[in-house]
C-alpha cells in the first residue's frame, strides 16, 4: 500500500505555512492540483501552486522557471516528496521498486540539479532534503534504501556545491502525526510504539517544519552536508 497523498500534502502544507508566516514567497508543488491550489489560495499572495510530478525532469524545469519568473529568484529548495509500500522483499515487483526510487530518490537529484543551476548564478542558496529516520537505521525495503541514498546524495552535493555558496543538508524525521498513521489499526499500533520513544510521543508536522525553517535559513549558515535528526530520541537508544 502506498503512503497516502494526504500525508505528503499535510507535511508540505505545514512547511509552506511556516515559511509564509516568516514572510517568504513560496511555491508549492504536488500531483494533487485541487488540494494544492486550494491551500496556496489560503496562504495568500505569497504562495503559488504548480502541479508537478517530482519524478519528471520537464516538470522540474517548469517549476524552477515558474518560480524565477514569478518571484525573481530561488533561494531555498525543500525536497519533501516520499512514499513507502508495506511489502516484503519477496513481494516487491520491479515496477514497485522503480516507483519508490523515482519519487524518493530521483526527485531529489532532479530538484537539486535544476534549483542549484539558478542558485549557482545567484552565488547563494539552501537545499533541504527530507530523508527519514530510516535514512539512518533500517526500516521498510525500498523506503530505507532510497532514504539512505538521499542522505548520501546530500553529502556529495554539499561538497560539490559549497564553492557556489550553496548549502545542502538532510533532515531525518521519526514518526510524524499524519492522517495515514491515525487511521484504524495503525493508530493503535502507533500509540503503543510511542510509549517506546524516549520522549514518549510522536511528532507533529509543525515540529518538523520548524527544523526545516532553521536548516534552510541563515541561522544555519555554517552547516552543510549535515544530518539533522528529529526523532524524539529513537536513534539514540
From TrEMBL:
GO terms for biological process: bile acid metabolic process. InterPro entries: NAD(P)-bd_dom_sf, SDR_fam. Belongs to the short-chain dehydrogenases/reductases (SDR) family. The keyword Oxidoreductase applies. Signal peptide: none annotated. This is SDR family oxidoreductase. It comes from the Bacteria. It comes from Paucilactobacillus nenjiangensis. One of its GO terms (molecular function) is oxidoreductase activity. Keywords: Lipid metabolism, NAD, Oxidoreductase, Steroid metabolism. The lineage of its organism: Bacteria, Bacillati, Bacillota, Bacilli, Lactobacillales. Gene3D superfamilies: NAD(P)-binding Rossmann-like Domain. It holds the Pfam family adh_short_C2.
Amino acid at each position: 500500500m502506498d503512503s497516502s497523498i494526504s500525508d505528503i500534502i499535510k507535511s508540505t502544507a505545514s512547511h509552506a505555512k511556516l515559511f509564509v508566516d516568516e514572510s517568504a514567497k513560496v511555491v508549492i508543488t504536488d500531483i494533487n492540483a485541487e488540494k494544492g491550489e486550494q491551500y496556496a489560495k489560503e496562504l495568500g499572495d505569497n504562495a503559488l501552486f504548480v502541479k508537478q510530478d517530482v519524478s519528471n525532469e520537464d516538470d522540474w524545469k517548469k517549476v524552477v522557471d515558474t518560480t524565477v519568473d514569478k518571484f525573481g529568484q530561488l533561494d531555498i529548495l525543500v525536497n519533501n516528496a516520499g512514499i513507502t509500500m508495506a511489502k516484503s522483499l519477496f513481494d516487491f515487483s520491479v515496477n514497485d521498486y522503480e516507483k519508490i526510487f523515482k519519487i524518493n530518490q530521483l526527485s531529489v537529484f532532479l530538484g537539486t540539479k535544476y534549483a542549484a543551476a539558478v542558485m549557482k548564478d545567484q552565488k547563494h542558496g539552501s537545499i533541504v532534503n527530507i530523508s527519514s529516520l530510516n535514512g539512518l537505521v533500517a526500516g521498510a525495503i525500498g523506503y530505507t534504501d532510497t532514504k539512505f541514498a538521499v542522505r548520501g546524495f546530500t553529502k556529495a552535493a554539499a561538497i560539490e556545491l559549497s564553492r557556489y555558496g550553496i548549502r545542502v543538508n538532510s533532515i531525518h524525521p521519526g514518526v510524524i502525526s499524519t492522517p495515514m498513521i491515525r487511521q484504524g489499526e495503525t493508530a493503535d499500533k502507533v500509540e503503543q510504539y510511542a510509549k517506546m520513544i524516549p520522549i514518549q510521543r510522536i511528532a507533529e508536522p509543525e515540529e518538523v517544519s520548524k527544523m526545516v525553517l532553521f536548516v534552510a535559513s541563515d541561522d544555519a549558515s555554517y552547516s552543510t552536508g549535515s544530518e539533522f535528526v528529529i526523532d524524539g530520541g529513537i536513534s539514540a537508544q
